[in-house]
User: Fold this.
Amino acid sequence: MSDALDRQMIVDMVRSSTMRVCSTMLSLDIACRDAYTEMNPPSGTEGVVSFIGLAGQRAGTGSLHCSSDVACSLASSFLMAAFESVNDEVLDAFGELTNMVIGNLKNQLETHLGPIGLSIPTVIYGRNFNTRSLGHQEWTVVPFLWDGGSLDVKVCLKETKDGEPSVRHGWKHEFLLGV
Amino acid sequence: MAQTLNVLIVDDSAAIRKILQRVLQQTEVPIGSVYEAGDGIEAIAILNDKPVGLIFSDINMPNMDGLQLLGQLRANEAWKAIPVLMITTEGSQAKVMEALDLGASGYVRKPFTADHIKDKLVGLL
Assistant:
């Protein structure tokens, strides 16, 4: 069943999920840019990053990345209040946005992959930090334009051994390095 | 003057509590007081103290989750008739079915609009 799921389908699912959440919760149509793949996120990241673990017939991570300015702008639209710097409310809103985008993606993936479990989102804010996935998986990156900046939705999914549920084996975690 | 409805929102995400409050104001349903709780335990404390006509509750929460809260509400003579709408992100059918079996009045999937919420409220009130 999972053989039928290719990269373009994942890109389309990420786009429809993100655009649906933005149009419903923010009443805004968000423009998407060309998707690409990367092996590991670039180093020296600044801004806000969130992660949600996915576990099922394929296991991996869904992630949202943006600058602190874009995170504040998103939170301002989401909560209808002005935020000029990243605080707990901005991080909470970003975590909830991640929950909705990846939650909707999960619903679409389940039609191809069967039941998938989701972890609780983790949100990180900082300057000059690196993220690294130990599995060296390929990430599908789907960028969206938001308020002059970019909101990147990233997904990596790896087939689990013999199709067994990855929750029994655990999966390789993200690591974060602050400089 | 139209009778107003006191609402209790139970969700561990402050963002969702805030968004739901904003969306409730857009539904044109006459809303009275809106109370907020971060989990089932806080919700029970509010219910002991305030009159509530409708509850929105998340399913996955720390300390006391939405299903445990629902079980307590339906077992309590004073609270068992209060309509409860569950809030869910993933649309996990198993948990939604469990909530409906426990006596939930319905459920709302995130993302939601004012129209979604209004439709649910009109069906209940």
Summary: The beta strands of chain A are 31-32, 36-38, 45-55, 58-66, 117-118, 122-133, 139-146, 149-159, 174-178. The mean pLDDT of chain A is 84. The helical segments of chain A are 7-25, 68-79, 88-113. Chain A has three helices and nine strands.
